Records
---
Amino acid sequence: MSYSRQSLMCRCYGAMKKCFVFTSPFLLLIAGADKDGNLIQQKLHSICCMVGEGCKYLYDVISDTFSWGIQHVQDTGIFDCNGNLELRVIIASVVLGAYSLLLFSYVWKSRNIRARIRLKQDSCRASINDLKKNIIQVPSKRVEEILSCNFQELRRRLKKGEVTATEALAAFQQKALTENDRLNFLVEPVKEAEDLAKDCDQKTNRDRPLNGIPVSIKENYFMEGYHSTGGMSTLLKYGTVKEDGVLVKVLKHLGAVPFVRTNIPQLMMTFECSNPIYGCTVNPYNLKRGPGGSSGGEGAILGAEASILGWGSDIGGSLRIPSHFCGVYCLKPTAGRLGSKSNEELDEGLVQSLINPTPGPMARDVDTLVEAMKAVLCPFMFELDPEIPPIPFNTEVYESKKKLRIGYYYSDGYVTCIPGVKRGLDEALEGLKNRKHELVEFVVPDVRAMFSELFCKACFGDGSEHVMNMFNDDMVDPTITLIVLMHQFPKFIQKYLSYISTWVTNDRVTGEQMRAMLGVGSVTDWWELTGKVIEFRKSFLQKWKDLELDAVVCPTFPYVAPPTGAVKYLIGGVTYTTLYNVLNFPAGCVPVTKVTAVDQIAMQDYPSNMAVEKFIKKYFSADTGGLPVTVQCVGLPYQEEMVLRVMKEVELGVADLKQS
Ligand SMILES: CCCCCC/C=C\CCCCCCCC(=O)NCCO
């Protein structure tokens, strides 16, 4: 989505609105003035007194200017000041008239937005109902049998013709429809799925690596005939996508059957999963809690076992956070390994050269991720997108038996992990130790500066202008209202608010993040930021090399699935994932445990110095029993195979522990 696609009118409207809203109080003050402008002086004086001595100087300048201005107007003789009512009436009428116009245009605009959203909702609902009515009938015993297969088993049966692709599709469609009624992860079913499945059932196609495997796809992936909105209804205006994106083409070429498109948060830059078009998705383990985001629909559908392989994307944790909250596996590849032409990042305002999003697979075991990566890293994809480095899957690295030297950390130095998360890491490390790997403590560098000074500044380098402009023609989801509202203020007020928030939250990061979202300023500042990112990567790499590490294992996130609507108070946790986007290191998640009653009791000792910690204490001391915990496995750039190997080692190590 390019800037040019943002209608000029919307942007002008937004700018005018802001200008007007912030100047009108002054206009009204003028309207309330007597002929000498006394009232203005009085009001300004009292305001200035409140702000303090420093502002008095400013007051003198301003009030002198006003007096001069009014005197000047009187001198011109445009109106008779003895009856100065006229001036006030004129100004008041202009202000009220403009407000009425604004109100009218707001109501008119809202009606259009709501109509656009309703139209899309109706079409999605119709599509779901259509599938419910016309779903291929498969006996329930057969459905259960298919759903109980793991990926390898399902693929083997499909290949042998013991299960047809049409049956597999129907089984997952049935399960998805049932689970969707409780979790709302579906955006819409893929209408062509049945035709694709029938094609897979041709004998000549059975050898394709993913033949007949039903796959779920995040809404932002380009698919011919479908909208990719990232939860922004304004993007519905541009119609459906004309051509499949690279990964969808590759998946179809390999025989996979995309069967549903799944939900995302509005704007895809938060880890709530709610937007005004498709609504709110909830967590399969606890319906009062969220599935994470932005690939939240994928997290929920996989967590509910209604999909066997899903595809999401990640620029700050959007594959890893939902995996962690929903207890599923994922791989966030190095940005570039799978290219950048598969999914909509309405993020084009967010797509910059420093920190890039990447598509990636999500699944219910490591083997599926391995098979998915092996399959898609194929000549067909390298030809389709020559910008993707033609590096096939390195089986040798994945299958190597060499003992590994693995770094680990329990805290990144900012938000402390809750006890359940710490215990999850304990278990992963113990499993690795039992498998004779060497463990080395690793201290991560300053994540506070990394998050606000590098991640936020890069992602919102334009002062969030591009994304915020889109809201001039859209509704705002309650999960992000606060942040959108804040951006309606002039920058100097936002800056002021950021300092207040540091003071209120006792947390430097909150204020720093707010200021970072005001953008970098100039090209020179952007170059400086580029230099800082390069420097950060260099020094991190050096630390890694000094310790001669093969990989790092650490918490994916400091807490588990939060109640829906609570993410806005908990953003701080995101340093654990954004670190590896800033570094552009591949990282994957492995579920290791679930929160226990003992973990919940241990929350009594959780710190509560910063606001974010107080909220964590509030939201995770109870009602978290049974929620999944994963660990994050990290490798050097382009070493996805090493990450997957470590993930497999963790999976095996934890399984051994549970058996013993
Ligand atoms: C208007 C909403 C802006 C919220 C700004 C909060 C600032 C930083 C938090 C970053 C949270 C990142 C969540 C994950 C984003 C992600 O990976 N998206 C994937 C897009 O493909």
Note: The first helix runs from residue 8 to 31.
---
Amino acid sequence: MRDRVEQIYDDVVGRNPAQPEFHQAVREVLDSLTVVLDRHPEYTARKTVERICEPERQLIFRVPWQDDRGEVHINRGFRVEFSSALGPYKGGLRFHPSVNLGVVKFLGFEQIFKNALTGMPIGGGKGGADFDPKGRSDAEVMRFCQSFMTELYRHLGEHTDVPAGDVGVGGREIGFLFGQYKRITNRFEAGVLTGKGLSYGGAQVRTEATGYGAAYFAAEMLRARGSSLDGRTVSVSGSGNVAVYAVEKVQQLGGRVLTVSDSGGYVVDERGIDLEVLKQVKEVERARISEYAERVPSARYVAGGCVWDVPCEVAIPSASQNELPEEAATTLVRNGCRVVVEGANMPTTPGALRVLREAGVGFGPGKAANAGGVATSALEMQQNASRDRWTFEHTEARVEEIMRAIHERCQATSEEYGRPGDLVLGANVAGFLRVAEAVHAHGLV
Ligand SMILES: NC(=O)C1=CN([C@@H]2O[C@H](COP(=O)(O)OP(=O)(O)OC[C@H]3O[C@@H](n4cnc5c(N)ncnc54)[C@H](O)[C@@H]3O)[C@@H](O)[C@H]2O)C=CC1
Ligand SMILES: O=C(O)CCC(=O)C(=O)O
């Protein structure tokens, strides 16, 4: 089946030129699927893999808006509705200047399998815009969100497509997007977006869920190795939504988090990151991470440095794709890192993954390890549908249980397919099998 897989990959590259991130995401999944196609010839006959690699719908649209000085800007918006095999398209929106169709497709493709792993009834999609919210006023961000939604709303619906946040899209942006959707449609359709504020249909723990989930996943991986987070040194990259709450939960579980970062550099604090200062700097003031080091005497800021140079036992990359390259993996291994857990989507390059595998470092792929966010979004949809509200404690217990189940499913699948402990294979195969079954059930659509 290797030849068949190579042929599918070549076709994907040929049909989607100049989309390197999408190719990378597809390559990783296809590499895991050879063993599945060997066992299930029907997937080859029915072109199941080829169908899953082709998005159901790809939307690109103009987003015009005016800044505070009256200057007109034109951005480009995207929504890739990748797969509705398991439920409405579900996945976040990213506002960042690097966003293009290939980036959105890589994220949407990953989302299909991630969402399948949660066991919840959600399909896969992703969207965003090449808009840079950095340095923009609240009023500018609001005008941008309103213009973005003025086009996107016609494609959304609680049973159709349900976006949420991602890089550059948090509670503030979701509020503006929801307000505009409500205004245009004249419907209070709470389930059309997740990550909403608690006052208008948001779920407890959604803000914390991705980071908490990654920490729970790390704890499960360590438990499978007869260890725990208690007393472990941990490096986290990024300082956004995922990073902040990964730090919080790791600390609650007894780990000492040494680092956080942003695109300008990293902070190392051997006494353990001060969460209160971190939240003040990043969530309240939206300032650079260098500010943290200005305020905490035990911290040092390294401008332009690589966060993975800091020795740690557990690494949780939580910033962006391909932020952990091969050289960084080599450094982590040399410094005794035992487990890498992806809080971000595809932060580890293929070369880095090879180095970690060869060194026997435990590796938790993003589509499993960061699924806590989207799983909680599904819990938000569930509460919206039944007009219910759950407590923080109840919701958090559900998230922990879901993360344990995902780890267990990935582990069991890796064993069933002859590569025990290979959670990349386990996640890809378990996610694929669930989607493939539904794809068949629906006939040729
Ligand atoms: N927010 C969510 O619920 C989920 C997010 N993710 C993924 O987690 C990652 C982070 O997302 P969020 O925390 O939501 O975004 P965010 O916008 O809250 O934060 C992103 C952070 O990464 C930093 N960053 C960006 N590029 C960097 C670089 N090259 N080096 C170091 N830091 C850099 C930014 O300064 C910022 O602090 C992304 O890969 C995203 O797709 C995955 C699952 C769910
Ligand atoms: O909560 C969601 O719907 C999406 C989260 C997301 O974008 C992701 O898992 O990468």
Note: The longest helix spans residues 392-416.
